[in-house]
Amino acid sequence: MAERIGLTPPSRMPSLLQTVFALPLRALTWLGSQGTRAVAAVVFIAAAVPPLGMLLRPYVTEAIFGLLCISFMRVDLAALYSHLRRPALVATATAWTTIGVPLIVGLVAHATGLTARSHGLALALMLQSMASPMMASPALAALMGLDATLVLVTLVTSTALVPFTASLFAGLFLGDMLTISPPALGLKLLGILAASLLAATLIRWVFGAAAIQRHKQPIDGFNIIILLIFAAAIMGDVVSDLVAQPLFTIGLAGLSFAIYFTLLAVTTLLFRRIGYERALALGLMVSQRNLGLMLAATAGALPPTTWLYFAMTQFPIHLAPYMLTPIARRFTARADGTGAAAATSTTQGVRS
């Protein structure tokens, strides 16, 4: 009877739902399987379609909240506890990214007179240095074949501290450059992080860690879509800025690449004793700063130069993982080879 009048029988509803959701699930799975290529493509799509940026700019906070939720819900608790039982490395990396980097940047900005000459650029650099690492850093490290667990654990500890360290350094170096007071900045950061952690915990409780792991690629695809929303939202004016002031815009792009690779190289060299593969993973994390978190905390009330610099940072953030993947694979292969050689040597020693 239901079929005769054009209604779907109840017995066929599950298969209908499966059909409806199958196509977007396959699309997300394909997108997630593209890895660093999709991440690199995001920045060009965002820059090439300015109207998309204007449409999505009001949703920056929601995009950051989504990225935070995805990262927190994918935390490997067993690996987290394992690393926390050997806290020296995690504590050192956390201190470097949350205290060392903003302290050095703040001192350099004041010593060179940048704070007096260009408030907008000085504010951008300080907010960048004060920010915690990007929540997508573990996923990017995994896509590159690096130690994502170490990145994730350090990310969690540094993110927990950033409301307090950001408030401290804002008070020390920013003065009246911010429209929000340092304590209010810290409280807003704490609120955003606490809310996203609570949401992620509820998601893990409802669906379970095993289901989250099984759907890794579709979640990666959804993560890339949110990255596109964020990148488009802050890059909506890039083309018009490039036309209006080409030298200044290109100069900011060059500066963003220079700072990114300086942080990457310095961090990798500082931690080289733990092996270049793991040191590069930490370098990737430190150079990938979560500027979106700062945008959300300040409600986007920032000077045009600050916005433009933040937009330019999207190029190294999205392109560097793709560019560095061959180097990461070389380090990983060397580490695996060393481990295999050590295992062979041990086996031969036991036999003799």
UniProtKB/TrEMBL annotation:
Superkingdom assignment: Bacteria
Transmembrane segments: 12-31, 38-57, 63-81, 88-109, 121-143, 150-173, 185-207, 219-236, 248-271, 291-312
InterPro entries: Na+/solute_symporter_sf
UniProt KW keywords: Membrane, Transmembrane, Transmembrane helix
Protein name: Na+-dependent transporter
Source organism (scientific name): Bradyrhizobium japonicum
Species lineage: Bacteria, Pseudomonadati, Pseudomonadota, Alphaproteobacteria, Hyphomicrobiales
